Amino acid sequence: MFRTNTAALISHSLCHKHVQIVHVRTKKTHWSSIKKKIHPKDKALEHFDDFYGSVYGRRWRSIRLALLSPHKYIAVVNNFGDSEKVSQQLEWLGAMNVRTVVEAHMLKAKESTNEKNIQELDKKLKKLLLTDDNKSDTKKENVEYVEKASLHESLLEAEHDESRLIDPEANSNIGGLYQFIPATELHGKSDWIPESQHYQYYEENSDFPINILNEESLLNIPPHLQIFTFDRGDFTPFPHPKTGATKVSGYYLMDGGSILPVLALDLQLGDRVLDMCSAPGGKALATLQTLLPESLVCNDIQESRIKKIHNVMSEYISDYQSWGSRLMFTQMNARSLNEPDVYNKILVDVPCTNDRHSLENNENNMFKPTRAKERLQLPEIQADILKSALMNIAVGGTVVYSTCSLSPIQNDGVVKMALKKIWEETNHQIIVKDLTKQFRPLKSLYSFSKGLKFGQMVMPFLPLNYGPLYLCKLVRVK
Amino acid sequence: MLLMRTFRTCYLCHCSKMITSKNMSVAVNDLNVVPEHLCNLAKQLNVKSTMLSKVINNHQEKLKFYTESRWLVLFEYLTQYDFKTSELLEMIDSNPDILSINRQHLQRCMIAWTNFRFEDKKLRQLIILQPSCLLLDDKLILSRIPKLLSYVGNKQNRLLELISYSPNILFDNWKYIESKLDYILLNMELGPTQFVTTSVLSSTLFDLKCRHTFLVKLGMYKPRDPKASPNLITGNPSLKAIIETSDKQFAVKVAGVTAEEFFVFKKIFKKQLDEENDDDSDEREYYSDDN
């Protein structure tokens, strides 16, 4: 009797779509324990609040808002598909070509400088007429490149500075002696040190010569590179790219900031390019879309990551397997790379805390408690990778260092560390190129940070929600 | 047939004209001179004739539909509840529609209100401040007040204060109000003492959610620590500052960012909510069905 009844009930409920799934409540799935659980995302946010709050002050709030909101993409049109048709479609969607924006900006800047020149000439004429002083302003605004000696050379001429010797017997300043010793091991609660204290180790003044020169050449977007994005405050999503006649996708979507390192490389015909930490392959693909490099080598440390690059390439280039030396894949540790003078353009997009990703996803998150050690070692690894790039670059070649982190330690700090190591260990002469002037035409598309020492940073800002992305251009001159 | 209809409309027009001419509003043309029948009415109602003419002058359009008897009934009945005549005039001035209530309805309504044993003086203050309370159906009052009381910790004075700030809670869709109250209590973690003195319940749920989420994402609105003492003052901006400001004021003064950021956020947030609502259509029932 009982059986038949339940059967009837089940069939009844099924046909009326009233099937209720009763979750088995265990300790782990209970709502209170779920609510209590601290995810890597939350840890990341707490960490950023503490660290960036002290670095960026009031501006951090606005950055935080942008990081926690959906970000904007740019579309890089695939030249190995139906590029013209796709560009047309993107324009119909209301997206704008970055090239036209840049050109318009340059034209405007040119006009205003012309006017300025005329005004300045007028002023000079007036001065000449009014006063008979013929003081010529021969001082040049630009600092000329001066060769600076490497550590070994300068050591030969160096004298001891007696005043700086510390007497080990004196107890007064003993704490200072241990302050700069890096930790070799991690114990238990070491993760609990707030990083704002850690930030104190990042010093402003440097004790070795660094050459910083303004980049004089104008921003050059390679003629075949078509990049599309939407206007300020416009959050229209790009539709999923369709596959064209050659069975490859029409465009590649990536964070707006990620295209800048490729532009900063200033690719020329016949360049030999190395992408040191290539996966997932977005920047490598954008490099290929310029159709300029003679060869591109994509390197990464793990096989799974190499696979990712293969996946991206196969989605966008149908015959990339047969390209031979034009596109190669290697799997090695970027820190121990030893192929000097082979490449003249190296892209160093190092592993970093990946701020936006860390706040959005719990998977593959740097702020997992088990990865604390890895995270704290990051600056060291980054500096090593950059150093290895600077060691291997050909004379006259360009290295672009980039991260997607807001941390000044991982950005300017790492560049400084790497430059210091190069100065100490080799005779290479490296200059830092200041891209402020070159990136000025992009001002309407990105919100750049001010006051960085070496590089440029794209700040997340809600109406222009790209980044964070830091990049620094380094050129070897000797 | 057509003739009949035209005749009827003409006749109706004529009648209505007759009625309006009988009423006082038409007569008031000059401010300084108070017409005689108004003086009479003022005497009957025991108010100053100048005050009366002023009120009538303010709402000529609406008041011309109500006859003298309506005034008398309203004044006679409500003075039983210790309303002063000047206060009653004030009420009519702020909401002339209360003259449309007939005696029976008025009686039922006042019984419903007094049924909850509010403090007499405070109830009177509320009704003077929000005369629309008298326009409500007595059944609605009887069913709504207990529900609301449970949300303000069964404190009657608090409820009266809440109603004085947002009287719409008495007649809006209950599910919608409940969702707002739940959001304030559970998501914003505010107690009744904090929300009864604001007009938060007369704003939309979307505005509330949008501004709250905005502050949370800026890191300015932090959830309360469950272990901390409940009396501890949080550094969060007050509900009054959040809800009783214009978009621009809110963005610049309360949140401390540019107005552009807030406008963009609002756009994105709206899109997100719409997408969520598309996913589960149950959510829509909040806004559609009544009570």
TrEMBL record, chain A:
InterPro entries: MeTrfase_RsmB-F_NOP2_cat (IPR049560), MeTrfase_RsmB-F_NOP2_dom (IPR001678), RCMT (IPR023267), SAM-dependent_MTases_sf (IPR029063). It comes from the Eukaryota. GO terms for biological process: rRNA methylation. Transmembrane segments: none annotated. PROSITE patterns: SAM_MT_RSMB_NOP. GO terms for cellular component: mitochondrial large ribosomal subunit. The keyword Zinc does not apply. Keywords: Methyltransferase, Mitochondrion, RNA-binding, rRNA processing, S-adenosyl-L-methionine, Transferase, Transit peptide. The keyword Cell membrane does not apply. The active site is at residue 404. Residues 185-477 form the SAM-dependent MTase RsmB/NOP-type domain. S-adenosyl-L-methionine binds at residues 277-283, 300, 349. It is found in: Mitochondrion. It catalyses: a cytidine in rRNA + S-adenosyl-L-methionine = a 5-methylcytidine in rRNA + S-adenosyl-L-homocysteine + H(+). One of its GO terms (molecular function) is RNA binding. Pfam families: Methyltr_RsmB-F. Belongs to the class I-like SAM-binding methyltransferase superfamily. RsmB/NOP family. This is NOL1/NOP2/Sun domain family member 4. It comes from Acyrthosiphon pisum.
From TrEMBL, chain B:
GO terms for molecular function: nucleic acid binding. It comes from the Eukaryota. Transmembrane segments: none annotated. The keyword Membrane does not apply. Pfam families: mTERF. The keyword Cell inner membrane does not apply. Keywords: Transit peptide. InterPro entries: MTERF (IPR003690), MTERF_sf (IPR038538). Belongs to the mTERF family. This is mTERF domain-containing protein 2. It comes from Acyrthosiphon pisum (Pea aphid). The lineage of its organism: Eukaryota, Metazoa, Ecdysozoa, Arthropoda, Hexapoda.
